[in-house]
Write the structure tokens for this entry.
Amino acid sequence: GSNLGAGLADPADRFACDFRFQLLPVVVVRHQRQVFAGGLGILAGDHLKAASNLGLPLIGVGLMYHHGYFRQYLNPDGWQQEAYPETDLYELPVERVVDDSGNELRVSVAGPEGPIHAIVWKIMVGRVPLYLLDTNILENKPVCRTITSRLYAADHKIRLAQEVLLGIGGMRALAAMKINVKVLHMNEGHSAFASLERLAQTISGFNVDLKTALEIVPRTTVFTTHTPVAAGHDEFPAEHVRPYLKPLEESLQTTEKEILSWGQPEGSGPDAPLSMFILGLHAAAHCNGVSRLHGSVARRMWSHVWPQRPVEEVPISHITNGIHISSFISSEFATLFNRYLGPDWYMSSRKPENIDRIDDIYDEELWRGHEMNRARLVRTCREQLIKQYNRRNAPSNVIEVLESVLDPDVLTIAFARRFATYKRAHLLFKDPQRLEAIVNSEKYSVQFIFAGKAHPKDNEGKELIKKLFAFASQPELRDRIIFLEDYDMHLARHLFQGADVWLNTPRRPLEACGTSGMKAAINGVLNVSILDGWWCEGYTEERGWRIGNGEEYADHDYQDAVESQALYNVLENEVIPCFYDRKNGDLPGCWLQKMKASMKMAMEMFCSLRMVAEYNNRYYIPAAKRYDTLIAGQAEEARNLATQIKRLRSLWNNIEIRSPSSKNRGPYRVGENFEVTAEINLAELQPDEVDVELYYGHMQSLEDLVASHVEQMGVLEDRGNGHYLYGCSLTCQSSGRFGFTVRVSPRGDERVKSTPRLLTWA
């Protein structure tokens, strides 16, 4: 998403205090109008709301899209059409930001055709302010006014201008409001230009050179990646980026060529495209994915940025996403939580004693509440379908039929998400006859609700919608399979509150996290999903169902064939019988136990209070403290770090390591110790400037180790002229075939130790 964000101190003393800053895409909803959309936008809103609940000094910054996300409707053939109605800003809870003189606050960035001007709007998200930049003003040329028109700009040049305005303009807006950015958080590379302006502000604000600023800014910057899909990572041609970088040469004390190189793959030519993701990675010492599996995938994807480093040591961690529970819980279940968990449950939802109280909810109350949610969903679907068919001028007899589609007492399965091809909406339709048998079963009826938008340029996604529409239009199915147009927050709430099952079929491992299933879970809706994203962490047999066993296939057609059969098997043999297992007309006891387990899981593991607290404890607070130490004493520590890095880079290639050896090659018994030594030529470097480590593990092949471990080695002998004998003792912990080698890395904090190219192996 192309939005930014920041952080807030005490509002009463906002200009005197240090501020923390968070770069986030943000969704704002009012009268079903959205200035942002998609999972990342909703997540950003949850992040700000949770920060408000926790009282964190956070500020959001983004763009004010006048046409926001498109409105979807289908033509009579089922082909997606897009409409872009303009948002009436006077229906939004916004106010214009003014300067100290009471004039409208304005910021500018240099563009290829002259300056791009923007005004700033403010929206309060609880206690957290959100600032949105707007270029739709008379001072701009017509082409510049369209920069903040649409969320997904078709023109690549407009997209680049949006990201320049977001990053550079966003930082300048904060500076104009006298907000000192202490910690910067960038989501995806869309906001990575913010790091350039922050470098410039650091250079001028603390009177330091670029090399010193490059030791301050990354150590106080967090970078989060939200997708492993290549299309989600923007790249721009060098010739398009240069006009934006040229004006930064003076403030950054360097050339446009060097600035451009920060976002280019190592070893590429000067005309290689600028990768916003690589720019973001290089600008941040704290990097993370958004689920455990996604962190692992991201380390593999971007290991080339850290050549020679084992994939498991690539400095990208993970913090699993969470949802703002009180924004998505149904009114019926919120009432139950108030009664059983206490009126402040939404602020203390992670307390074990609160979570355990969900088991105390009477099954009858829980089931009646869920039935109310399902009935409301069915009514909403009927109303929505009537609107859709009226738009197509359908005859009255068709409209009359729509008044009775779906059944409020039937097992209801929802599939609602973006219609990107990797989400595989087609998986359920791989065997149409088997699906028809499930839907039209005389014993156990099932109904399906689909919703979601394809990207305006994604014809493959649109084709999926068209095929689904055609399949659902068959007379024998149209009462049990429907497609809802214009999926938005309003429809989403009804779906994940009122469905019985939330279906998710991504192609593993392309689902970074996925939060809609979490919202379903807190409402007692059971997940049936591929083991991808968050479900890898959330799944147990007590909470829902899995499709497959987490396999990954190179042959996508084969994968689809296998997993579609797995899906049918799960539905026919487990999900449907469980829902209708009601002895003597009683309640579905097993299903209700799963509902409670699912709700407890969402509250404990996947709420945004946990997520934001984790960001705060792991990244924000350490980075804020680091900021203070780095700038103290005229940035003395940062200057020393810059000198250290310069020295290491100039001398590193002179390091030589002879092959490590032990007195005998074994075999050894478990529990035995043996000594390993290696002679190392550090040249002009000193032992206190480096770490020498024994790297060992099970041998997978002649040159590959798995389940690797590291043991620190110490100097045993100074042999003169920069030559040292290092050694350590190693204990055999388990049986098997092991291998070992020795490496040298720079000594220092994690930023120093993970500096690309500063790693030498024996």
Notes: The longest strand covers residues 114-125. The mean pLDDT is 92. DSSP finds 24 helices and 31 strands in the chain. The radius of gyration is 28 Å.
